[in-house]
Amino acid sequence: MDAAAEAVRHARAHRGRTLDRLTRLLRYPTVSADPRHAKDMSACATWLARTLRRIGLADVTVYRGRVAPVVTGVWQGRPGRPTVLVYGHYDVQPTGPLSAWASDPFRSARVGPHLYARGASDDKGQLMAHLAAIEAWLATAGSLPVNLRLVLDGEEEIGSPTLISAVSRGWPPLAADVAFVSDTWMLRPGSPVLVTGLRGAVRARLELSGPATDLHAGAFGGAVANPAAALARLVAGLHDKTGRIAVAGFYDRVRTIAGKERDRLARAAPSDAVMLGPAQVTAGHGEPGFSAFERVTHRPAIVVTNLSGSGQGRAVVPARAAADLNVRLVADQEPATVAQALWRHFRVRMPPGVRGRLTIMAGCPPYTLDPCAPVVSAVNSACRKVYGRDAVQLPSGGSIPFVSMLAAVRRTDVALCGFGLPDDRVHSANERLYLPNLFHGTELCIELYRQLATEVNRTDQAGVSRRR
């Protein structure tokens, strides 16, 4: 039996332990956006570091981050072989109303083949597949086929500020020949996807102010400017009646989808019915002339994620109102340029009596995988071994700021091949993971590490990758 097959045998024999570890990891309420969970973030990071040491990684370190720790581990026992950076994140989105959950979001519940909990799919379940694969290699062969750097982020859901800064300053733990990330989805069980691109993002907050304080609606309604009403008009004016973005210059650098690419997407990408199924809506919405998949991958979007005001439902003219905006960008769009266009749009439409401010909270550029990168053939070889088929190559509508910055600044090819499913309810109530994907994903990681050892060459001292 060859080394990879022996590692797979070990992983299968220890699926129970992998599941136990995931269940323990899911207990930590690692909501990075909520300062009240700072102690939970630190406790989870400590547990992860202990787990990395147990599976055989060296130089395990917990670095203090701006909001939450970054946990790293290293295995460097293959001189002359490439170094693979494996990235995952252990922070999660807020749960939202607990009444929407069928069970405690931080006490995982198994129902048939699914495990329900916040973070089950995004991204604790997916990163656990890598930990199980690493352990299987080290427990059987005593080594990995490649050198490995593992980076576990506690701030991905808030834009990865610590790691974004680390990329810019050339942080040594991020030095690698290629990177591999499992924080994405499959078309369906047994049908893996190699993500060929991510949309960029700008996270912004538009704040309007009017009177010095909240005012009695009866005494002042109709006599003073209302920031909430002004905000409603400004937000409504972001799109025209067809659903196209109405911000001047917003589409200047947006590429036209080539005819061949549209034909390929029509064959390979999910249909509108499949795309919209999890949303439980009967009709799509957005820029006309495009499928739902094209809208969320090849076209930009401005999403209003929250509206708030100082009135809080009282019978007042509110003194303040705010809108949280999530802008998704496509290839060639630049976050700074789009942010400037957005502010110009609001500034010229600001009504008298109201003052406005647009604050940019975070941003990252789009990412596109080089179709000729050696990692593409490595992923396909691994997928053929585990799933009996090549990965379907499709872009994603999501954004992973660390991935985009790693590629833009360090010119690292990043393969995104995940084990989630479109109906995992990521970022929603009753998030879940299809457990067979966890176990098959572990086997994919085992095989992929072997394939990367031969498909990707080391980077020379000048920083130029010598590829096949």
Structure overview:
The chain is 34% helix and 20% strand. With 468 residues, the chain is an alpha+beta fold. The protein starts with a helix and ends in a 13-residue tail after the last helix. It has two domains: 286 residues, Zn peptidases (Aminopeptidase, 3-Layer(aba) Sandwich), CATH 3.40.630; 119 residues, 2-Layer Sandwich (Alpha-Beta Plaits). The strands form six sheets. A six-stranded mixed beta sheet has the order 1-2-6-3-7-18, with helices on both faces. The protein is built from 14 helices and 19 strands.
Brief synopsis:
By secondary structure, this protein is α+β, with helices and mostly antiparallel strands.
Topology:
Elements: H1 3-13, H2 15-26, H3 38-55, E1 58-63, E2 70-75, E3 83-89, E4 109-111, E5 114-116, H4 124-140, E6 147-153, H5 161-168, E7 178-181, E8 193-195, E9 197-198, E10 200-209, E11 215-216, H6 217-220, H7 227-236, H8 259-268, H9 272-276, H10 292-297, E12 301-309, E13 316-317, E14 320-329, H11 335-349, E15 355-364, E16 367-368, H12 374-387, E17 392-394, H13 401-410, E18 414-416, E19 432-434, H14 435-455
Parallel strand pairs: 3-6, 3-7, 7-18, 8-17
Antiparallel strand pairs: 1-2, 2-6, 4-5, 5-19, 9-16, 10-14, 10-15, 11-13, 12-14
Helix pairs in contact: 1-4, 1-14, 2-4, 4-14, 5-13, 12-14
> What's the level 1 CATH class of the largest domain?
Alpha Beta
SS class: alpha+beta
Largest β sheet strand count, sense and barrel closure = 6 strands, mixed
| Terminal residue distance | 28 Å
Q: Tally of extended strands?
A: 19
- Helices, by number, come to 14
Rg value: 23 Å
Mean pLDDT: 94
Low-confidence stretches at least 5 residues in length (pLDDT < 50)? 459-468
Fill in the CATH topology of the largest domain: Aminopeptidase
- Helix coverage percent: 25-40%
The CATH superfamily of the largest domain is Zn peptidases
Number of domains: 2
CATH architecture of the largest domain: 3-Layer(aba) Sandwich
Overall geometry comes to globular
Q: What is the spatial order of strands in the main beta sheet?
A: 1-2-6-3-7-18
Strand content: 15-25%
